[in-house]
Amino acid sequence: MLKKIPADRLRPGMYVHELCGDWMSHPFWLSSFALKRDSDVRRILDAGIREVYIDTARGLDDAEGRRAEDVKQDVQKEMEAAIRSAEEPVIQVSVGEEIRRARQVHAQANKVVRDMMHDVRLGKAVSLENVEPVVEAVTDSILRNSNALLGLIGIKNKDDYTFQHSVSVCTLMITFGRSLGLDGEVLRQAGIGGLLHDIGKMKVPDAVLNKPGRLTDEEFVLIKQHPGDGHEILLGTGGVGDIPLDITRHHHERLDGGGYPDRLQGEQISDMARMAAIVDVYDAITAERCYHRGMPATEALRKMWEWSKDHFDQKLLSAFMRCVGIYPVGSLVRLESGRLGVVIAQSPVDSMKPTIRTFFNTRSNAYVPTEVVDMASPRCGDRIVSDESPGRWKVDHLRFLDVETA
Ligand SMILES: [Fe+2]
User: CATH classification of 95-324, choosing from 1.10.3210.10, 1.10.760.10, 1.10.10.60, 2.40.50.180?
Assistant: First the structure.
């Protein structure tokens, strides 16, 4: 059985199934492992991890632990309540109308980031003239309908992680900022910050940056230098505003002081850096990497909510979940009837019941004629049972995002 316990109750003989916290803030990654000696326990506590899941079938039990299933249900209920109390997103055109333009914007943004990062690797300066029009185009697309670009950033190509991640964080920062009522120059600056936030990674050797599997402590020290290095690169660039500088330096800071590089705590962390921390982790854990499958978006939000009290601003995280939805556009979901569908629009009345387009039947393992299903409609006799990984079913679900207007 999986149980959640406070990390200070860990002892040798227990089997760690999962560490609660984003693994970019500590060197353990996603691994499960047995605790053999006191020093193993100390290492977890020293990394600032407060809670863990243990597997009682593979190691010692703890009487005070809570069953993983109970925790999951509570987290889901809290998230639903948080989303219901957050603000509504603004939509001007349909996803179907926006998706073609969004594809061009997305491709262009990826190219600009790739060229820029390549230049930085070669020791050349960052050129803001190329960055600004991209951020402008991303902002315009989001203002027309954020669901189109949000759907596209859900398509992850594992070979291009660092570039795609920058474009995704830019897109998410603008979408999130917009939903919080930011506009004009502030919104643009948030987008620039998103696009540039990991520029310091170009100082990390490729072999470490793209290493499959767990990093050594020494390699992790190198990775942790990227916010400071990025900040320095941008200071040297000239003309970069305070918001992108702040986002670049502080997107790995955590509310409990366990982040890096400056170990800021609570109020010392700006709202922009708190927003960047949320979107950075969300995109990182949903990304396909050469060594791990991307986590479905809904699962990622659930995990982040669970960690939120130590790491993230809970109010901002509620607003973020409201803005992307509990089943974000582009998510693949499975229905009770056995059909698979892609989420094509959020419901204005119930975030748990989006509109989806079904295209596959898992019982016959075959594509079926598409059908738009409004899960919030009283006539809908079906319900979502889970969010799914497209890789599991080998389907190109995003093909079905733009066949007609949503
Ligand atoms: Fe980063």
Answer: 1.10.3210.10
